[in-house]
Amino acid sequence: MKELHSGVCAPKGFRAGGIWCGIKADSRKRDLALIYSERPCVPAAMFTTNAVKGASLLVTREHVAAGSLHAIVANSGNANTCTGDAGVEAARRTAALIADEFAVSPKSVAVASTGVIGVPLPMSAIESEISSLADSLCGDAAGHNAALEAIMTTDTRKKDGAIEIDLSGVPVRIGAMTKGSGMIHPNMATMLCFITTDADVSREMLEKALRRAVGHSFNRLTVDGDMSTNDMTLILANGAAGNPPVTTENEDFTVFSDALESLCISLARKMARDGEGATRLLTVAVRGAKDEICAETLAKSVAASSLMKAAIFGADANWGRALCALGYAGVDFDPEKVDVSFASRAGSVLVCKDSHAAQFSEEEAKRILSEEEVEINIDLTGGASGAAVVWGCDLTYEYIKINGEYRS
Amino acid sequence: MKELHSGVCAPKGFRAGGIWCGIKADSRKRDLALIYSERPCVPAAMFTTNAVKGASLLVTREHVAAGSLHAIVANSGNANTCTGDAGVEAARRTAALIADEFAVSPKSVAVASTGVIGVPLPMSAIESEISSLADSLCGDAAGHNAALEAIMTTDTRKKDGAIEIDLSGVPVRIGAMTKGSGMIHPNMATMLCFITTDADVSREMLEKALRRAVGHSFNRLTVDGDMSTNDMTLILANGAAGNPPVTTENEDFTVFSDALESLCISLARKMARDGEGATRLLTVAVRGAKDEICAETLAKSVAASSLMKAAIFGADANWGRALCALGYAGVDFDPEKVDVSFASRAGSVLVCKDSHAAQFSEEEAKRILSEEEVEINIDLTGGASGAAVVWGCDLTYEYIKINGEYRS
Questions:
Q1: Cis link prior to A187 (omega < 30° from 0)?
Q2: Which residue of A has its CA nearest to B119?
Q3: CA-to-CA distance for B87 and B80, rounded, in angstroms?
Q4: In which order are the strands placed within the sheet that holds A281-289?
Q5: Which residues of B touch A357 (CB under 8 A)?
Q6: Which helix (H) or strand (E) holds A344?
Q7: Matching fold, domains B2-273 and B281-404
Q8: Element holding A41 (H helix, E strand)
């Protein structure tokens, strides 16, 4: 597996671009993105489970179901949610405008939106700049970066990646970009993730690989427990690499699926690290649970606890909060048999043994927890094999600042 | 219903006291409380559902089950949780020490603890001061206040109350104290609530009344979504008022039960207002849900949303976050038919009609949300009758400060 550097433009046949069209007030901030493949793509997607759904999501779900996509058009600064029939109309119109530019079917254009809820999408801004958007496309890192910038809201870092793998001797690429830093919680809260690949993969296999990858990455991510109305992860496979088509769960499928998962995990970690106001990436690993689902539920309960997150911000080895969060996770385990250790590149320290305080140096624990990436490792010791890793971040002053004044 | 001012000492025959024994480092802060009734009391209690349970809770559950209590002894500064068999032994020993002082059965003494998890309870401090604690008892507001101070941790306000009602012509009193400001979430997270009454009520009726009162008050309270290992609400009824015994769901039961509920609701509101770092009391009311449970679930989802709470801190009329939180509550409702208004004593403003932005003045909304007590009123409009009110608070810089450095 080789790392590449042009994100969604790394796979053959994809171009991307991004411009400012006037949805965001600040003209230095791009707000409209496009990813395009001349070759039609097999799509697969996963969407938010929030009952309140953004209009763009409703339209994209329909277009993905139709089976063949050429493009993704996405705006930031406005979620086009709680905007009723007019919102759905706006999403359809945006897809149609892109379709016109490239003489493809409107149903081959996916639409995504992120930003404030309840404000009508300013269609005139989009309409008047749609040609500039099409013109902005290019097939290198610059195109990728422009598109990525155009989907960012409170994000402070670029979260992207691209890799090359080998399927039956043919080099194949996967590239991705994500946005999302607040309102992130399983499952898939305010995040957009666009993935491109030049692999030749059947729809069924693409869906299977995506479901697995998302289940082990974005769905194990928690920033603030809120789940957005607009989340989507969308992958387009255009087959330009010319590999033998992956249509069954053969060896090529495993290689592809593993690569996709590892790319998504690296993005999930980047998103956690860029959690709104976050100063630390928190990894919570649970082992010894009855099964993987139980382990995941327990780990998420710890990673999502406001008290635990605030303690991590303070580099305070308050392991009692981890036990407390395990206790209310609603999962069966022996509360008398829990081992907890904190770790980072500065070392590892066992702070709780058999649910009792272990002898440890507070000073050493503080040093370990003061690193930018910290781990809470929880062993339920009973010998069961259920294990899972989830990602989160600390809860900080900056989170409050960002979200107390989001619309200002 | 008349308001009284001496809390748990308002009902006849109850005395209370509180001292510093050395569990807290600061000798100006009381850390050991006692409530005592010479007459044996009928008890009823509700405990945390956290799988990790404090040692004192395990012991108290056993003593309540035994059926007759004289006293509650409670310490702050140490939760006596994750302390294993030695912790249970310490809780039993504390009960026995009090029992010795008053020549009653150890099983007639309830024990409660709140504070840091995982640190052994310093029994020698408790032992050496147990007589002073017994000596501190007095039957007026001073005794109540001393006991109340001794159960407080990060609390910044006293949360107590007492009322007098009339049962078949006989005046009867109910008094209460609570502690708890962080780690509060349904059901009953780090809170202690001790209630006394001189009513003559059967165990069965007392349990029924308590369950109803807690269900409509403390279990509708959310501060940070964390549920503690040590929560308990405990009521003692000593019968000293001499009312006709309440043994069935007669009219007296209704009066008693309603009074208890209203007292608990007033305490729940005080706890929300004193949520760690809180600057505002947030009330979320949902109506038009399928049933009361659905309404409660939806309201809690909004009140517990970190994004909504941060917006309330910023007095930002970001109603989209309310819709978003409704959407992930996991309850069936029509996401296209939601009305939302914000209210306070400064007025009321409809901000969302049929899930769309209503025309409203941002300035007016900000003025309304800048009050110390604010309401989010949500109407699902379909005409169904399920309604519920829950309480929470805003999420602030101060919350982070308190919980980033709790053990420091």
A1: yes
A2: A357
A3: 6
A4: A356-357, A347-353, A339-344, A373-379, A281-289, A386-393
A5: 82, 118-119
A6: strand A339-344
A7: no
A8: strand A32-47
A381 belongs to the catalytic site: no
Q: Which residues of A are less than 8 Å from B333 in CB distance? A: 51
Collapsing DSSP states into helix, strand and coil, what is residue A299? helix
Query: Class assignment of domain A281-404?
Result: alpha beta
A105 CB neighbour count, 10 Å cutoff: 16
Task: Find the closest chain B residue to A307 by CA distance.
Answer: B403
Tell me if A393 sits within 8 A of A275, measured CB to CB: yes
Q: How far is A223 from chain B (nearest CA, A)?
A: 10
Please give the backbone phi and psi of residue A298, each rounded to the nearest 5 degrees, phi first: -65, -45
**B2-273 CATH, one of 3.40.50.740, 3.90.226.10, 3.60.70.12, 3.50.50.60:** 3.60.70.12
State which amino acid sits at residue A325: A
Q: Is A44 left (phi over 0), alpha (psi -120 to 50) or beta?
A: beta
Q: E strand or H helix at A402, and its extent?
A: helix A397-404
Phi-psi region at A120: left, alpha or beta (left = phi > 0; alpha = psi -120 to 50): beta
For chain A, domain boundaries: 2-273, 281-404
Q: Which one of A178, A190, A229, A283 is the catalytic residue?
A: A190
Residue B363 neighbours by CB under 8 Å, 6+ apart? none
What pTM did the predictor assign?
0.79
CB contact under 8 A, B229 and A327: yes
Smallest Cβ distance to A225: which of B84, B225, B354? B225
Q: What's the Cα-to-Cα distance from B5 to each of A36, A364, B8, B162, B166, rounded to whole Å?
A: 72, 49, 9, 6, 17
Torsion of CA B9, B12, B14, B15, to 10 degrees: 60
Query: Which of the residues B190, B222, B233, B283 is marked catalytic?
Result: B190
Residue A148 token pair: 């990525």
Neighboring chain A residues of B399 at a CB cutoff of 8 Å: 306, 310, 400
Among the partner residues B117, B305, B321, nearest to A323 by beta-carbon distance = B117
A107 vs A32, A55, A69, A97, A102, CA distance in Å? 19, 15, 7, 11, 13
CB contact under 8 A, B324 and A183: yes
Strand partners, B173: B164
Classify residue A372 by burial, with Cβ atoms within 10 Å: 0-12, 13-18, 19+.
exposed
Q: What values do phi and psi take at B122, rounded to 5?
A: -75, 85
Unique residue bearing structure tokens 């964390």:
B226
Instruction: Please say whether the beta carbons of A198 and A172 come within 8 A.
Output: yes
CA distance A225 to chain B (A): 7
Which residues, at least 6 apart from B196, have a Cβ–Cβ distance to it below 8 Å?
A: B8, B9, B10, B11, B14, B35, B37, B41, B174, B175, B176, B235, B236, B237, B238
Interface test with chain A among B226, B326, B362, B374, by most A beta carbons within 10 Å:
B226
Beta strands in B258-393 (DSSP E): 281-289, 339-344, 347-353, 356-357, 373-379, 386-393
Chain B residue nearest residue A84, CA to CA? B356
Residue A116 sits at the vertex; the CA angle it makes with A114 and A122, to the nearest 5 degrees, is 80
Residue by residue, pLDDT tens for chain A (408 residues) are 899 999 999 999 999 999 999 999 999 999 999 999 999 999 999 998 787 888 999 999 999 999 999 999 999 999 898 888 999 999 999 999 999 999 999 999 999 999 888 889 999 999 999 999 999 999 999 999 999 999 998 888 899 999 999 999 999 999 999 998 655 554 434 689 999 999 999 999 999 999 999 999 988 887 665 666 778 999 999 999 999 999 999 999 999 999 999 999 999 999 888 877 888 999 999 999 999 999 999 999 999 888 899 999 999 999 988 998 998 888 999 998 999 999 999 999 999 999 988 999 999 999 999 999 999 999 999 889 999 999 999 888 888 887 777 665
- Is 0.85 exceeded by the ipTM? no
